[in-house]
Amino acid sequence: MSLSPIITRRTGTRFGSPSTSSRILYNVCRAMVRPVVGVAPLTYGAIRRAAILDSAAGMRIPSGIDREVIRFPDFGGGSGFDGELVRTAGSTADIRDGAVLYLHGGGFMCCGLNTHRPVVASIAKRTGLPVLHLAYRQLPYTSISGSVDDCLSAYHWLLAQGGLPEKIVFAGDSAGGFLVFATALAAAATDLAPAGLVGLSPFLDLDCTAKSAHVNARRDVIAPVSALTAIGSLGGVMPSPVDGDLAGLPPSLLIAAESEVLRVDAELMAQRLSIAGVECSLQIWDGQIHAFPAVWPSLPESRAALRDVATFIRARIA
After folding, report:
1. Residue 157 forms part of a structural domain
2. Is the pTM above the cut of 0.85?
3. According to its UniProt record, which residues of this chain constitute the active site (predicted)?
């Protein structure tokens, strides 16, 4: 049964225009980030240099949360990977009552627990649920499919702690959005689909042909199509989530910026989910940058978007 996706346009301010903070961030990215990212060739050397971003972010511990470090073994015999279980400070929330698996973005090559701890903390506080945040293996040390394997292992860990698929929601931004849907497809193939999926500016189609032809290929102030194309070629052979068997997936919430190029992927996934009979809501936010709720969670628009994310998560788990 085909459904129609629920598509809304959002600004997040009562005056119907982006906030001053959002406009400043947008213009800074246009002036300083896009010129650098747009011309730098994406090589394995560049990937290794980009990997220091998480260390450079420092150990940012937002107030009002507790963290439990989790060490995941690599069942393939490698070094494994880390994660942390984030809860609201003093919370006794149990994984069996509900949990979120958060998969950070960064082009499958950078960012991690430090860069994305603020958005993870925000989700934990707004939902009252424990959030498992992963430092999954990335390029060049594993392929994109290797990153998916890590995310699936973490999901199985949640289930082993007593979590139930119908009480777990996957969420992620950018490349993490790819991992959200790829991991959910792998889980659904064994009848373990989670309760819901959240994608913040998700990168869902490694084929960048449509994105290259879209007007946003010239408007996006952070993610040039050239970089997205290079990621696809360096990441190994991996099917895109938009081409998967979507019928077994749970309801989804997709959020994208109006001018970003990955809006193309969010719209395509919303269409294909609807054709597959899967409930999907898509929010298009004016005047924002790529993955704005994860990049700067304290923006007025980010706070509004994360409230919607929390409402969706609580509804799916309830």
Report:
1. yes
2. yes
3. 174
Counting beta carbons within 10 angstroms of the beta carbon of residue 53, is it exposed (0 to 12), middle (13 to 18) or buried (19 or more)? middle
CA dihedral 219, 225, 228, 230 (to 10 degrees): -150
Residue 240 maps to which CATH number?
Answer: 3.40.50.1820
Tell me how far CA of residue 126 lies from CA of 87, 109, 129, 300, in angstroms: 11, 29, 8, 15
Domain of residue 78: give its range.
6-317
Pairing status of strand 81-88 against strand 131-135: antiparallel
Which of the following is catalytic: 153, 174, 201, 259? 174
Domains: count for the chain: 1
9 three-state secondary structure? strand
- DSSP assignment of 124-135: HHHH-S-EEEEE
| Terminal Cα-to-Cα distance of the chain (whole angstroms) | 24
Helices 113-127 and 300-317, packing angle to 10 deg: 60
DSSP 49: H
pLDDT digits (tens, 9 = 90+) for 141-183: 899 999 999 999 999 999 999 999 999 999 999 999 999 999 9
> Catalytic residue at 17?
no
For residue 1, being part of any structural domain is answered with no
For residue 35, being part of any structural domain is answered with: yes
Of 216, 2, 19, 232, nearest to 107 by C-alpha is: 232
Which tokens is 100 given? 């979120």
